[in-house]
Structures are given as structure tokens and as C-alpha cells.
Amino acid sequence: MNMRSIPVGTINENENIRIYKHLHTEPEPVHVHEFLEIAYVYKGCGWQTVNENTFFVKHGDLLILNMEDRHSFRPENGYIGITNCLIKPQFFGETLIDYFNFSDILYLTAFRKFSDLEQLQPLVQFSKKRFFEIENILDAAEKEFNEKQRGYLDIVRNYIEILLTKIFRELQKTDEHIYQESTEKIAPEILTYLEQNYNQKISLKELAQRSFYNPAYFSTIFKECFGKTLTQFINELRINEAIRLLKETNIPVEEIASKVGYHDCKNFYTTFKKMTNQTPSTYRSNINKV
Predict the structure, then answer these.
(1) Among candidates 114, 109, 69, which has minimal Cα distance to 92?
(2) 232 lies in the same domain as 115
(3) What is the distance between the alpha carbons of residues 214 and 114, in angstroms, rounded to a whole number?
(4) pTM over 0.85
(5) Which of 173, 195, 217 is the last residue of a domain?
(6) How many Å apart are CA 83 and CA 94, to the nearest integer?
(7) Counting beta carbons within 10 angstroms of the beta carbon of residue 288, is it exposed (0 to 12), middle (13 to 18) or buried (19 or more)?
(8) Tens of pLDDT along 208-244?
């Protein structure tokens, strides 16, 4: 197995952290880091291997990787977009200079309330509104890091501490068997199909046939595996894409609704507000104020 070491030099010695987005279109070979890494999938899906475990990851999933973890990934359907947060332990304080995993961070005062976590699983899957909270935190941290205004590292550190708190909260309540069940019962091809066609009309019957299940059983195991109904899952994909379009384009809200699969604007507004606590117009207005 070919293994390469990613050099520490990818992080500025004066910053001890680096945050950036990268769209991968080719498989990445097995490698190790000399820093901690938080990897958030902001687009697409693929396979991530960490040491001896392989996970199917999709938009909204996050991985925490310790120093010297052997890991690699390969995109599914041509691409996977990842927000990388590379962190040297001393970013949190010089006392951590000789430590090398996320468990060590639990001994910091800010995270001692999570010290009862026995083992930190690498894969973290967020549900409902948490999906958007994590993405917004990372986007804000990346923006602050790139602009490098006076005091930016202090602000970035605060964002990362908030992010880690939410990660540790999720790990406390995550059933470590959920992912195993999902990969055994719901084929990865189904998730890829949903990622590609969320803006089209997708029927439960159609997906059940693709999985060789009857509709009632497919509906039951889908909710067991992902903690949400098929409709909720599709709505999350649609609203997340709507958020991206609101952030990155000037497309009218009504046109965005149609693009992401809502032909009834009232339904779009209701679903968007339910998942984000804001109307689409208010969300865009708040983004433009930042």
C-alpha cells in the first residue's frame, strides 16, 4: 500500500491552523498527517477510509482525524467537495504541543464536560438543523481566516471551539451502529441517486424497486438508518442547495425554489423557515450584511 506523508508545511507556523475548501475529482492515496484534521463534506459524496474502517460519506457528514491516522478517500460519481480544517494541537495552547489526537483536547477546560466520552468515532453525522449550523460555522471561520484582519486567529479559535463543542455533543448521543446499518440496508447507489436527483420528483415506490424492497419496508429501514423519513432527507438536500444559491448567486427566490425541486413556492417558504428559522429573503439579507 502506497503511503505518503502530508508535510507539516501545509500549515503556516505562525498560525497553527489552515481552513480551505477543495473539490476532489480523483481518488486520494492512503496518507498520514502531522496535525489534526476536521473534514466536512460540503458537496457530493464518496468513500473515506480511516485506518481499518471505510465509510460512505455525503454532503453534511464530517470526519475528525487524529495525527498519524491512515486515511484516504475516493469520490463517488466524479467528485467530492471537502472543507478541510487542519490544526496543530498548540493552536489551542502550548501545553498541547506534545499531544496528537482529539481525545487530548477533552482535557482542556473548555471541553472537560465531555471528558466521559470513551472513544471518539471518526464519522460524525448531523441531523436536521445541525447540518446547517455546522456549515455556517465553518464558512464563517474560513472567511475570517482568509481575510486575516487584526485578531483573526482569536476569532477563528472561538469558531473552532464552538464547532468542537457541537461535534462532541453529537458524539455523545450518536449510536455507533447507525452507519453500519445504513450501509448494510440502504445501498450507496440509492444515496448517490438522491444526491443527483433531489430536484426531481422521487417516489418511494421507485426507490423501493431500486433496492428490491417493498415500499413499506424501505420506508421503515430508511428511517431506522438515517433517523429521518425519505421526505425529510430530500427536503434537507433541497434546502441546503437553496442556501448555497442564496449565498452565491442573485437568482430570485422563486427561481431558486423551482431549481431545487419546489414548484409550490409556499411549500418552499414553509420548509425553508422550518429548517432554518428564517425566510429565504431574510437569510439572503443577513448574508449580505456580513
Answers:
(1) 109
(2) no
(3) 42
(4) no
(5) 173
(6) 26
(7) exposed
(8) 888 777 787 788 888 877 778 899 999 999 999 999 9
